[in-house]
Protein 1
Amino acid sequence: MKGLRLEFISLCVPIALLVPIGATSAAAPSNDNCMNARPVGDVTDLAFDTTNATFDGPGIFILEGPNIWYCYTASCTGCATISLLGSSFDTKLAVFDGCGCYPAAGDLIKVNDDADNPLVKQSQLMMPVTAGHKYLIEIGGFQGRSGPGTLTIECDGNMSPPPNDDCARATFVGDVTDLPVDTQYATFEGPGICRSSPNVWYRYKAGGSGPVTVSLLGSEFDTALAVYDNVSCYPNEADLIGCNDDFDASAQSQITFQALAGHDYLIEVEGYNLDTGGQGVLTISSQFPPVTSNDDCSSARPVGDVTDLPFDTTDATFDGPGLCLTSPNLWYVYTPKCTGQATVSLCGSSFDTEVAVYAGAQCYPKDSDLLGCNDDFCDLQSQLTIDVVAG
């Protein structure tokens, strides 16, 4: 029998992985990169999915994880609401001025994580916009989360930023109680000494010398507060009297400082960070005796709503434009806490009075500022009812 030889040969051959017909690999969204931001206008429940997205961008707010981009062109001049409510995952949202890639830190307008409510894991923010202007929207997830979601953008031309959104347009106030504050549509501007979040401004004239307490207790959002001993815009760090974030274990703010009679102070109200804002109340209370030196227009005493506030013109002198009154006079600056009608009454006074009301608080008012004069309304005393605007 012939012998048999067995030979084992090892062959190295490529192995092809067969993919079933019709199957495809998961693709990233078309707007995965900032340079490919998808143009949008006002939309309702526009579907998106970040599941297969990657991260790119400046990492200013959404620091890591999948993100996608939209370039929004505002349809109105007013305020826009950008919302991810209804999405299936814990989202984060940032909006920048302009659609350039990549945006710088100074381009950041607003951010949001949890729609100003830690129980809501989706994002929503409100901001002022200008018709035709472009805004870059970055959508991502908390700690890199991803998934399908919906984007809604609505523009309301009837809404606008608060009138005191800018430092130069600070609202004049005296002592007030629960004056409404709203930073939802505010933007940030200012020195950024304490915070750099959306802010509004107030200008307070002290009616005397002594402690003044500025409080945001009772507000609905996590507030921050700064007071400056300078009313020029912008104050610098040397002007800062104090900052406060959380007063007495609350998420709201309060500062007490020593004021000088007749001196003006600048008050900055804002959120804890770019992610916080909303509606609140401002209370300013002083602990010094009532001012009696409002004989001159330039020393007008700040007041809010008052009842039977005593005054005495016995030793007063006359100053002013002489449009209605030319007799010894006193001056007050009234800041209304609501929009509607206000009644200024001297009924119950001991002498034959006169009263005049002017728009604004400039000394001296002009004829065009005059809202009304009255001599005899209730017997020999005076009273006027005028239309007013809150703040």
Protein 2
Amino acid sequence: MKTIACVNVDLPTIDEIIDYGDDTSLRDYDIIIFEPVIPEYERIEFSGGGSCIGVDGTRDFLRTTSHWARELQDALLAGKTVFVVLSPYEEDRAATGSQMKPQKQRIYTTEKINNYATIPVKVNLRNSRGKKVIVKNPIFKMLHEITKEIMEYRVVFENIDEMQSVFTAKDGASIGGILHSKIWTGHLVFLPYFDFYGDGFTEPTDKVDDAWNEKAIRLSHGLVGQLVAIDRALKGAVEATPLPEWLNKFESPKAVDEIQQSIDRIEVQLLDMARQKENYEAKKLDLLEFSHLLYETGKRLELAIEKALRLMGYNVETLRIGDLEIDHVIVGPSGIRMIGESEGKDNSAIDVTKFRQLESNIGEDLEREEITEPAKGVLFGNGFRLTPPLERGQQFTDKSLKNAKRLGSALVCTADLYSIAVHILDNPSDFEFKAACRNAIEETVGGIVKFPDP
């Protein structure tokens, strides 16, 4: 008999309901049903608006996320089937630490988190909701027929290179499927969202106010039965007769034990290789984020700029004090203090409007008691970002150039930063080049920064 564990998923006929915060192992189960979530944690409220998860909550989230990522990976390596219920994609900010500034103002460092970090592969999803579900694989048709009253999609896939699409929306967008891997022997199955908390599935009893009713139990039995049938179909074998207990009393060939030992060693090696691959994939993605300097805008561009500046030897922080929030506070070995703003434009140069925020931040920063000199302004621009870099026109408008001279600000083309970052990554000990790049920014007053040739 198949043993089933539900993580964050309530099914009326499954007793093994595991909470996200538990450290329970999945090794005792044949089938896992998992829903990615961000639990409720105590939050830090910012005086200027917004909030983030507190430091203790962040620590707990990262610990449990790491636990479930390993457990799901191990389950797939062991040949098990993992069904992921595709809940809406959630992002949040989480505090990783804090420090006390003058006037007893506490500054928090944060990082972005999301609920799909537990899934042992990178999935590209965006939220989109609908009820029309089309089934492309016949082994899933009965599952949909049984659950169509409670099944809907909450996300769609934007990248399905390694996934066999099983469920689609009416327009053909993938909303669920089977993700294959050369490493796993198991199956990672993405299912459209469902739950049993809608109207008509609970009713009050003498003991509780909302007990599952017969309809919910009947539907749950059907759903679980179909998941078991899908698991068998994916493994490509009809369930064999279970091994009788008395079979252990009969001696088996010695080669069986030797082969099992070899299998055990290979499984350990595969697990180690899978973890190594996961680490390499993460490092690769981290390096590829520098390419955002060439074509991105918004937060992704800001983060890529910060990474490039840190490579050059700068310390870059986000400053939050009361209502004041500055994304890039840049300080280098020379001691010069700079404040940066960034802007990306699809098909035009960077115009003068971005200076308003830059000037405002420099002024508000100077009003702070501990600041005695105005910071140097730096405007990072990614103009014509959808055009190949070598074919782009002037990155900053004439008005921007004139305003930079008025303020004594430096203008930086983020596409130039990309070649700088690549050279430093390839030559991390080229400290002379790093210093020359910093000097180029710090000594440019009222113009576009000309970096040294890598």
Protein 3
Amino acid sequence: MSIEAFLWNYQDGEPIGFEFATVRDLLATEDVDWNEEFGCLRVRFQNPSDSVDIYLGKEGPHTDHIDGITISRPITHPEFLDQIFRIMKLGDAMWFYSDETTPVFVRGADPNQYPPDLLKQLGEPRFVNSPAELLHQEP
């Protein structure tokens, strides 16, 4: 089973997503491809094994809007973590993993932007100050 990571952005209890162009620019590296068929950005870093598929949705380039971000096989590469951290700072974005649903927010974000029942289901929020803190944490 593969691990996925999710990045959501809510305001007043409703999903507001992200601007496609902004997210794409923040995720870009020197080696990046857009797969239109799947609405997926393949981002590669220096080492060929350091690549990640980031699903933004097929309509993103046409509407400049994405509902949320799904990352297949998230990696620990410092540049990737920095990119995700910068996206989280665009709003009250929440990061969590498929196998560890603890919602993670950048310190200063407002988890009260999310529906209370959603937060209750995911667990007690954790706040981070740096990109490295986005990695899985032991309970």
Protein 4
Amino acid sequence: SVAFDHTVERLDVEAGRLYTAAVSQAHLFYHFSKRAFLRSILQYVRYDRNAALYTFPVSSLDERFFTQFLFSYKVNPQTVLYLGYSDNYYGDRAVDLTQTDRTFFAKIGYAWVI
């Protein structure tokens, strides 16, 4: 399954438009079987600001891009294995989108029966 969402917010003040924020997000799910699935999340956020209208220093443009991939496998009803990857990108007027961090992770969930 695929889901996509796009939201835009604008704030106008007496002196003009203060900012425009846009958030786009996509979720993709693929189920291999009852036990295994793959999920990915892609999110892009962009802030356009009129820096002259702020009372403190702000960047006129901020961009962020986030990705996450998760694989899940249910070994039995009490044991689940998760493997994943995520990263973040940041950019502004002076710098294009640049990777700021990267994470690989693994988790095993097990329910103890007493």
